[in-house]
Amino acid sequence: MSGKLQGRIALITGASRGLGKAMAMAMGAEGARLALVSRNLEQLNAVAREIRERGAEAQVFPADVSREDHVARLEQEVQAALGRVHILINNAGINIRKPITDFTLEEWNRVMDTNVTSAFLMCRAFVPHMKGQGYGRIINLTSTMAWTSMPHRAAYSTSKSGLLGMIRALALELAPEGITVNGISPGPFATEMNTPLLENPETNRLFTSRIPLGRWGKVEEVGQLAVYLCSEDAGFITGTDVLIDGGWCAQ
User: SS in 3 state form for 142-196?
Assistant: First the structure.
């Protein structure tokens, strides 16, 4: 443990699996004290156990961060248990893949609420924790689908593009406080969200053929990027989005 984040309190939404779990593991290894948030308590507990076995502190907070009442309760519980949050990673997200004409309004709103409104609610609740400390880090998990897109991704691309606007506006708003706001845009990563693509041999080959580096991303690579963006070394990086996509968007 090198301790790049020693003494920092980091809250990660969608922490029960995939990229959220990977970022939690990486930040715990650098000394951060972790607040793990997800709707799935059983999976959260499993992640927390794994992190604790590696010598880091992790506490679990089940919540639906697309709901205002849940976020209000979460803010109180996290502050009581750990103190003021220094790092907020808005990672909770869903994807519904279908033609625009097949979407119901409820499905569209569910994608927007989970991917965009949740980030607004979390920032509104936890930015006050960061103010007055001269340091703060907010990372929104965006996507290459904010920069390019594919058929049947209308809701997902719209939601992730919205996060880019939030990142830029908040970076300017919070810069006087020493709080940086950035995005991480993962390309094709081997996560649970992409299981349908990974398990379909034809789709899997199609995706791999379109990645210049010729492979899916490893979740640990996003974890290490998050650590860097939250470290003191990245203190001059704000208002931007980092593509980690194997060259996908360079084409």
Answer: CCHHHCCCCCCCHHHHHHHHHHHHHHHHHHHHHHHHCEEEEEEEECCECCHHHHH
